Amino acid sequence: xxxxxxxxxxxxxxxxxxxxxxxxxxSPTFRFLEFEKDVLLPALNERDITFFAIDFDPNIGNWEITxxxxxxxxxxxxxxxxxxxxxxxxxxxxxxxxYIKAPAFGNGDYTLTIKNNTTNQIxxxxxxxxxxxxxxxxxxxxxxxxxxxGTNKTPDYLYFQNTSNTITQGVTTxxxxxxxxxxxxxxxxxxxxxxxxxxxxxRFDIPLTIPVGTYFLSIVxxxxxxxxxxxxxVVMEQKLPKIxxxxxxxFVEGETLTITGEALRYFVNEELLPTNGLSTIRxxxxxxxxDQNRDFQFSFxxxxxxxxxxxxxxxxxxxxxxxxxxxESFLFSDRDxxxxxxxxxxxxxxxxxxxxxxxxxx
Length: 362
Prior knowledge:
Largest sheet: 7 strands, mixed
Shape: elongated
Number of strands: 29
CATH class of the largest domain: Mainly Beta
Structural class: mainly beta
């Protein structure tokens, strides 16, 4: 009887070990975030293609990587899975940088397909190779969702419908035929209005008619050449703040100005971003007092820890602002610092509201 118990114990142990080994050999479900650069220059020699991910199995043998130019496959190998120190509060997983070793190849649209052989999970994404790139854009408002540990040099900013943005360096501004957006999924093309400003920088406008989504941005010249921004850009929906009413028009120092309205904060559609669910991306809200000479700006922040953040209710329909005392204020329209007279409005993200007249006496 003891021999039978001993044999059963051994068999149970073997079965448990076998099941445990099978479970350990199965990769976790990975999440592709984005290419480190969405547009690359042609290469004369072997090069690395890098992308960001989380929960990517470091066992290189568990992966099958395919690179296609649309006509043929290009031989590539998974060479390194680097786990960085960068992480998010919403997950225990750290950011990973994945290196794919690829041979030299020229201009084209390339699709990288990643397959895990233990789970059959498959993911594909496309990057471009172009003959010229640029890296410097100043958007109408700075809202970053940059992924990385600080080593990637070109930031990811949000772009918004019905805004102007400026390419500050790295492009030729003579002989431009058009500025173009290409949808990163469908490659549908849109031509943008543009002009060279007094500083010699190229300004381009994203109209309200551009659908929200992810795009490649390029400049096309009269000679047929073009240059591409090295990151794709995400275009967000226009959401205009609106002031419906203020509690009164005439104030004295120490009183509270109350604004009621709509969209007093801009809430970012994070489902459009690769960081969706990992981090919270927000834009700031400012209260602007404007007289004949200048603007006076008071920030209501973007995040809970920011000063005055709680002075806008969660639904973003009411804002309260205590008029500062004269001894603490810089809000004056006259040299003797006795009053302010002008208008008040809200800037929420990239957009400004309508204004209401207001006067403050000190």
